[in-house]
Amino acid sequence: MSVKAIVSIGMLSSIAYLLMLINFPLPPFPNFLFIDFSDIPALIAALIFGPVAGILVEFFKNALNYVATGSTTGIPVGHIANFLAGILFVLPTFYVYNKMKTRKGMTLALIVGTLIMAIMMSVLNYLFILPAYTSLLQFPDMRNLVVPAILPFNIIKGLIMSSIFMLLFLRMQSWINKLTIVKSA
Predict the structure, then answer these.
(1) Counting CB atoms within 10 angstroms of each CB, which of 30, 87, 112, 135 has the fewest?
(2) Domain boundaries, the chain
């Protein structure tokens, strides 16, 4: 990685961390589900510097947040869930967009990223994340929330992030493509 890439990943990680602090719940869903826009800098990093950069931004923003705010369980279960959700959104979006480098391609990529994130996070919540909260915090079994809460929440979160990213992408597409071409040369 070049110095420019490392500095850019650090800068995008810090922006993602700050965006992670600005979060809000959606009223019909449980109060532990929050929407934030911290995956947008990770997606920008992936588009410009490749998938590893997107993963690094997701990792650093969650590590910074865990160090700054801690976790109610003592173990960063929520941070791991956020990291996985970010990767499951950013990587499919990156790979689909790389096949079709157009605005329609980005729209399709964001839809695919949203669906993969929503479905895989539902599976991961059912198998690992919600049972971890159940055992660590002595909560009752919450796996019954996967279909009525987790799945629709992640679809709505993905659609909101996709809409905001598309507004940015329409302005930044030529710049992103230019940086990607320079990087690959």
Answers:
(1) 135
(2) 3-20+30-184
